[in-house]
Amino acid sequence: MPAYESAHEGEPNEGEPYEGAWAQRAEAELPGFRHQQETERCLEHGLRGAPTITDRTIPTFSRGELPHFAGERGTFLKCPFVEDVREVGDAEVAVFGVPLDAGATYRPGTRFGPQGIRRSTNLFGTYCYELGVDLREQLNMVDIGDVFTIPGNLEKSFDQISQAMAHVVSNGVTPVVIGGDHSIGYPTIRGMAPHVDGNIGIIHFDRHVDTQESDLDERMHTCPWFHANNISNAPATNLVQIGIGGWQAPRAGVRVSRERGTTIITVSDVERVGVEKVAEIALETAWKDAKAVYLSFDIDVVDAGFVPGTGWPEPGGLLPREALKLVRKVAEAGLAGVEIVECSPPYDWAEQTALLSSRVILDSLATLVRTGRLGRKAARRSGAAWGPEAA
Ligand SMILES: [Mn+2]
């Protein structure tokens, strides 16, 4: 695929004046094998369409991507589902849900986050125009379902989450975690840390500082980094926190972040120095003497007007396009995993919070593919896999 040469994504440069023109050409270079394969499988499993249907790729029963409103398979982006998680190692990326809201201190509902976010992806195709990436063709991604969380018991749920994370990571697979409230940031890091040969940096998007030791006498969603940063190879000095501010950053957490030396960037900082510079600072901090960087994205970092369906909405956050551009910039350097948290579908009256949550995952993955950090591992076992063909 032709490389888009611009130093700054989306900005004109010499020889290739517009991203729009580049993307229009780049599409021609993308493979279409997996789409072809899916069409054939759909016709076989879903029977050929009625004689009056002119398009002979349409089956009687919906079995694939189309139509987007039907044939809901319940997986993220309708990617392949893996029933036997012992076989997760055949994939390059594994998506799993963590339906948990026991850590919410105000609005509940994030236990429905995985369900809502997966459903919102029915709307999307597998191809992104301006990134020039088609995930179905280029990424061996699977959905392995949800962690069995224990409603009402945070600590048992944490143990389940850490065990799930460790299983995926120890199989050499990149995890994508769909929360759940932000308390899961601690058990996800705890599950990953023993499998990283060095320090883990965390890029944390949020309106809230999330660094206090306990809240309401438990390790709630205000507390993940206090405990994650106690893990020896996940130090606070590699924690960069973007978008913090407003009237819901408890002083107990601010004190901890100050004492431990986390790096905090406010929404005004983003406005003042710009997305490019903020991404640069974030990468420098997270990657300093680190072996891996993890993205923990709380959807409430985006202005409450765009994301009503969240546990603790705080007006004045990032604009969606700022947030997505920041995600793409930090993903360029590589990510060992991604989690998206705090999407609460019961409060999400037009699915916009779930849609934006899905975009954070999709844009991260597409950037990792575009920069060549993902997209090389072919499935060997599954005939219905996505991504590159086995040699
Ligand atoms: Mn938050």
From TrEMBL:
Keywords associated with the record: Hydrolase, Metal-binding
UniProt-listed InterPro entries: Agmatinase-rel, Ureohydrolase, Ureohydrolase_dom_sf, Ureohydrolase_Mn_BS
One Pfam family it belongs to: Arginase
GO molecular function, one term: agmatinase activity
Top-level taxon: Bacteria
Presence of keyword Manganese: no
Biological processes annotated in GO: putrescine biosynthetic process from arginine, via agmatine
Membership in a protein family: Belongs to the arginase family. Agmatinase subfamily.
NCBIfam families per the UniProt record, alphabetical: agmatinase (TIGR01230)
Protein name: Agmatinase
Organism for this UniProt entry: Streptomyces oceani
High-level lineage: Bacteria, Bacillati, Actinomycetota, Actinomycetes, Kitasatosporales
